[in-house]
Design goal:
It is a single chain. The chain has five helices and no strands. Helix 2 runs antiparallel to helix 4. It starts with a helix and ends with a helix.
Length: 97
């Protein structure tokens, strides 16, 4: 059985493979609904880093990479014209807590 430290080393090794920092262009066409869902998943995943038991992957990823991922989600919302709707949905979900 692998320990938490062993798993963290494996993740770190995979993320350090040459070429992993290379920028790639992805031509992606998805529905607005899926843009909202993708952004929500990104935000929940990033929030999980602050939970009591974050995943090993999230704890071993540099903060700069996590920030890039958040910016990607925000860019997707902007391109889909969903920033205002997303903010209103956030307000509704916070009100419902």
């Amino acid at each position: 059985m692998m320990t938490t430290n062993d798993v963290a080393k494996v993740f770190d090794t995979v993320l350090s493979i040459p070429g992993m920092n290379d920028v790639v262009k992805i031509d992606l066409k998805i529905s607005r609904k899926n843009v909202l869902l993708l952004n929500h998943v990104i935000e929940r995943g990033l929030a999980a880093k602050d939970d009591d038991k974050p995943s090993i992957l999230m704890t071993s990823v540099p903060e700069e990479n996590l920030q890039e991922l958040k910016l990607f989600g925000d860019e997707c919302l902007q391109k889909a014209g969903l920033i205002e709707l997303n903010e209103k949905l956030k307000t509704l979900s916070e009100t419902g807590k």
